[in-house]
Design brief:
An eight-stranded mixed beta sheet has the order 3-2-1-4-5-6-7-8, sandwiched between helices. It has 16 helices and eight strands. It is α/β, with parallel strands linked by helices. The protein folds into two domains: 179 residues, 3-Layer(aba) Sandwich (Rossmann fold), CATH 3.40.50; 175 residues, Orthogonal Bundle (N-(1-d-carboxylethyl)-l-norvaline Dehydrogenase, domain 2). The structure holds nicotinamide-adenine-dinucleotide. The site of nicotinamide-adenine-dinucleotide has 23 residues, from helix 1 and helix 4.
Length: 374
């Protein structure tokens, strides 16, 4: 395996630029590809020069460091210029046909042993790589927004990903100061199935008349986070949340895992173009309102986390680490279940199953009440 020295990034938008800057700051040379010369220039100005200047102004970086990091990054409009890269990370817009085409073009332009990875959020890696010339050199490398701050990276192994490819990507992630976890190719991978179902469950209570402010407060208190799930949805963009929800439902609702449906309220709010109004009403303290929300939220988190490990998408330890790292929950699903006690966890999973959000995971169906080995 050739040592990774030069990293290609296809699509230098929000994610691609953060991934590229992170790699450049870690000592890699970076070549990004954009659609045309104007975008090559404007993206460099916006994401490299302006972003680094802000760090210099805040005293977080010296002007010399800024020159070194920005000097490691160059842009192009041609795939051929990415032939110099040992690794190419695709971070173009979320369109399947476009991504399949990009990997076909990269396969023609780059040497056979180049590692080709996608930062897709919703598509199966195996599907995106169907026209790649050397599938053993392909994988997913899923960063989390904001990619310069969020430390989690899911290293996605598709069926044909080679061991040396996987190991090189784990090593690359660590050298970028990231926390990598190992995930099998699966709809949404490991973290998003938990995050997306959490907001679908919460948003469904809007259809039942619970206020946004109350749902935000319940999610903060239940999960022990400063910024609750309604707030995080606004940060991700409600359009992205809506489409990601639809995609998960399409992949999973008819399987033995199941998935909560996409509430009307989320669709309507996304179509209105406005974010959730986190101060729409006073926070309700009425336990008859709060308890069903809390129970279905936790029950859903416990159900999907159990399904993910039972389907061998991710290990218990990696999912626990991944949730804490990417979502900033002080405790992941398994620590939460162990702490509440497995009898209570079973009761909450039954609440989720009875609400039709998920099917029963094997462990709970068997009434196996042994704590999760953490
Ligand atoms: N934004 C997030 O929170 C987030 C988180 C994780 C993963 N992702 C994934 O990362 C990818 C990029 O998302 P984003 O939010 O950075 O989008 P973005 O729209 O900010 O950036 C995409 C960039 O790709 C460029 N592009 C499109 N086609 C191209 C091509 N053929 N060649 C070169 N450049 C091309 C566009 O000009 C644009 O600058 C998507 O697959 C998305 O699902 C996004």
């Amino acid at each position: 395996m050739k040592e990774i020295q030069t990293v290609g990034v296809v699509g230098f938008g929000v994610m691609g630029a953060a991934i590229g800057l992170n790699a450049a700051a870690s000592g890699y040379r970076v070549i990004y590809k954009e659609l045309n010369e104007d975008l090559v220039a404007s993206m460099y100005d916006k994401w490299v020069l302006q972003a680094l200047r802000k760090r210099v102004d805040k005293g977080k970086m010296s002007p010399e460091e800024m020159d070194t990091v920005s000097g490691r990054i160059t842009g192009t409009t041609r795939y051929e210029d990415l032939a110099a890269c040992e690794l190419v990370i695709e971070a173009a817009v979320e369109k399947m046909d476009l991504k399949i085409q990009i990997f076909q073009d990269l396969s023609s332009a780059c040497p056979q042993d180049t590692l080709l990875v996608s930062n897709t959020s919703t598509f199966l890696i195996e599907k995106l790589m169907e026209k790649a010339a050397n599938p053993s050199r392909t994988a997913g490398l899923h960063y989390f927004f904001p990619a310069n701050v969020n430390k989690l990276v899911e290293v996605i192994r598709q069926r044909e990903t080679g061991d040396d490819t996987y190991e090189a990507l784990m090593e690359f992630s660590k050298r970028n100061g990231k926390v990598p976890i190992t995930v099998r190719d699966f709809p949404g991978f490991a973290i998003n199935p938990i995050f997306i179902s959490s907001y679908l469950v919460l948003d469904s209570f809007l259809d039942a008349g619970v206020s946004v402010a109350t749902l935000e407060d319940i999610s903060q208190k239940t999960l022990g986070v400063r910024f609750g799930i309604m707030w995080v949805q606004n940060g991700s963009g409600l359009g992205t949340c809506y489409h990601a929800g639809e995609s998960m439902v399409e992949y999973l609702s008819d399987t033995d895992i199941g998935y909560p449906s996409v509430p009307e309220a989320l669709k309507a709010q996304f179509e209105s173009g406005k974010p959730w109004n986190l101060e729409d009403e006073a926070v309700s303290t009425d336990e008859t309102v709060r308890k069903p929300v809390r129970e279905r939220l936790l029950g859903g988190i416990f159900a999907i986390a159990s399904h993910l490990v039972e389907k061998e998408v991710v290990s218990i330890q990696d999912l626990e680490l991944g949730v804490r790292t990417s979502l900033a929950w002080p405790k992941g699903p398994f620590a939460l279940m162990n702490e509440l006690g497995m009898n209570e966890a079973l009761r909450l999973v039954k609440v989720s199953v009875e609400a039709g959000d998920f099917k029963m995971p094997r462990k709970f169906g068997d009434e196996d009440l042994s704590p999760w080995p953490l």
